[in-house]
Amino acid sequence: MAKTELRNGLYLRDSTEKLTENGTATSHGSDAEVNGNVVPGETQVDKYGFTGGGQQYSEDSAEEVPIEVLRQREAKWLEMLSSWDKWMAKKYKKVKERCQKGIPPSLRGRAWLYLSGGKVKREQNPGKFQKLDEQPGDPKWVDIIERDLHRQFPFHEMFAARGGHGQQDLFRVLKAYTLHRPEEGYCQAQAPIAAVLLMHMPAEDAFWVLVQICEKYIPGYYSAGLEAIQLDGEILYALLHQVSSVAYRHLKKQKLEPTLCMTEWFMCIFSRTLPWASVLRVWDMFLCEGVKILFKVGLVLLKCTLGTQQKLNDCQGLYETMELLRAIKPQYMQESFLVHEIMELSVSETKIEKEHNAQLRRWKESHGDLHCKSPPRMHGAKAIMTSEPVSKQHLKQRPTIIVESPLAPKTGGEQAEDATRNGKSKKEAETKTTLPPEELVNPYAPPPDHSPLLEHTTIQESKESLSSLEQDTYL
Question: Full-prediction pTM beyond 0.90?
Answer without folding.
Answer: no
